[in-house]
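Internal tracking record. Fields below are filled automatically when a chain is submitted to the structure queue. Please do not edit lines marked as system-generated. If the sequence contains nonstandard residues, flag them in the REMARKS field before resubmitting.
Queue: standard
Priority: normal
Entity type: single polypeptide chain
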Amino acid sequence: MMTAIKNINKTNEKKLRVGIAGYGIVGKRRRKFIDQHPNLLTVAISDIKYKNNDILIDGVRCYKDYKKLINQEIDILFVCLPNKHAPAATILGINHDIHVFCEKPPGKTVEDIKNVIKAEKLHPNVKLKYGFNHRYHDSISDAKKIIESKKFGSILNFRGVYGKSMIIPFTGEWRSRRSDAGGGILLDQGIHMLDMLLFFSSKFVKVYSFISNNYWKHNVEDNAYIMMQDMKGRVAMLHSSATEWEHKFRLEITLEKALIELSGILSSSKSYGEEKLTIIEKNNHKTKKTKAIIRKYKVDNSWKKEINEFYDIIKKNKKIVNGNSQDALNVMKLIYKIYKSDKVWKNKFKIN
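SYSTEM-GENERATED OUTPUT FOLLOWS
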């Protein structure tokens, strides 16, 4: 088999050939933007829905077993598999010198991502990127620029809510089983907001939490109530929930001279409402009026930007700044710190 690195060195003009492991909602969405790129081409996919291990659909090889993908001449592997399979598939790609883009979370446990990093270190020319997609939303990018500009001073605190309504994962699919998923709504969705908090701030050194599965009663959490303090003394409060009944995304970032309010997030389901960034400047005590600036976002460019960036990283041999394995490790460590800070939850499920 010709490896990814050999393929790229052979000719700079050649399209990079892509394999997708896991062809559900996310895998199909990734393919849409992969195939829109002029220098990427999907040549093989895998999914358990395929009965045979080698069939051809629209010129693309389809397999039941993701391990068969590496028998194809591919340069990039996109991993869109359940949490329990993601680390093994990622390591398989790395060990075959294939660049890997893996969806979040990187696995079920912190040990999973540590094992991936061990493989990554043995193959320094392979690019490994994780799909922390929210960093690429225009509202998040704009908030990051505002914070870094210091126009409104430094960050004081954070307050966020990210929740789903009655969702398929909590009606018996793999996301509702600890053996398959490793965790519930916090690991599945709250991970995005935790990653954003790390993106905007620094390491959180103090963590307090209440974790529960009182409503859906699966052996993974359906609510996580969290309070944290970072290295600079800034406090973040977060509620990650699977009992919102109406999809909700809201993150407030209090600065010294203004409040940044991120509300709604553009998604394929369009169920989180309009994506907006609101800047509310501190009261002018002479006039007792507040000044609000509202930016609205109509198009979700995040998936396209992620894939375009990954291609550019491979093509130009750049370092991965957003969504690297260290980012994945940091957020997984934080999630498990949250799980373990609730002693009842920790003991109930013997979380190490």
